[in-house]
Amino acid sequence: MLTAFSLNACQAPTQTVQSRFPVFGTFVTLSASHVTPDQARPVFARIERTFHSMHTQWHAWQPEGTLYRINQAIARGEPIEVPLSFKRQIEKTQALTRASDGLFDPAIGSLIALWGFHSEHWQGPPPSQAQREAWLKHRPSILDLWFDGLTLHSHNRRVQLDFGGNAKGLALDRAAEQLQAAGIDNAIINIGGDMRVLGERNPQKHQAWSIGIQHPDHPGTTLAAIAVHGNESLVTSGTYQRSFEWQGQTFSHILNPNTAAPTDFFVSVTVAHPDAVTADTAATALMVAGPSGWQRIAGRMGIDQAFLVAPGGQCFATTAMAKRLQNVDCDLQIIDPPKSSAESV
Questions:
Q1: Which pLDDT value is given to residue 340?
Q2: How far is CA 167 from CA 7, 33, 94, 164, 330, in A?
Q3: For the segment 185-230, what is each residue's pLDDT rounded down to a tens digit?
Q4: Burial of 148 (0-12, 13-18, 19+ CB in 10 A)
Q5: Phi and psi angles of residue 222, each rounded to the nearest 5 degrees, phi first
Q6: How far is CA 320 from CA 24, 38, 251, 334, in A?
Q7: Long-range contact list for 137-141, CB < 8 A, 24+ apart?
Q8: How much is the average pLDDT of 295-310?
């Protein structure tokens, strides 16, 4: 989780307009600096309407949504015409899935359902090894999908899309576009701790937005902080954000598509990138990649700013990210991904 606060508390506060509302199963906070309420309120209202529409249309389990209808058509083996926005997100995510070596793949809706993680209240028990192996035998992937114009086809009827892993990134990017179109250049969009930052908190004094990374073991406290000037996204994926217990064992909601089981290598991963969809996708992919693979996957995905927290208080960061971190409260080791290995996304 990420939190925003003023970088320099002793400076006079700037004029900031805020709005807060529930959506996506969390709370969204919109903050715009150096604007009047009359400038900010109309675009805040448009963003809220956009987010509520996205929550319905991109929800994998709501029958009135577009994504639900897409999944039903795939299960029947039927092609379906989709909105251009869905085609663009599917094709962009296909490229990111390739770059992640399949460690991020939103075609695992059936695996999420097998674990019961699609429900707000997990009942258990976890699926058996035999059930997971049966799922892996057919291994549905977003790469099984292809388009003829706006008509979506699938080579695999078991594909069930669930964009819970990067739809918030899409929402962040859309909100940033709406703010900029309205002439608001200094703002921050916070969706349950995932953020998109525009400009500065106080452009007249060059005062940055400062983003606090939540301490996984101590909610309400920060493990580190990052100062942000300009257009950037910061997204955190964490096993502590949602987990389930069964007979003394804890299961994270973040699943590895290659093992059909939850991942537990890292407690949290924070990624900074100009594009929120890429940051959101990469944060999950690096979580799944674990200590032995995250550098290679970061390199392939073009991620040069990442901060990873392991169990026991050890942290890892790329050089570019380490230069920006402040007040780090963990044993930090700096490791960089391979150079010149990023794929075009």
A1: 52
A2: 29, 26, 14, 6, 30
A3: 999 999 999 999 999 988 878 888 889 998 888 878 899 999 887 8
A4: exposed
A5: -105, 145
A6: 31, 39, 32, 9
A7: 139/257, 140/107, 140/108, 140/110, 141/97, 141/102, 141/105, 141/107, 141/257
A8: 96
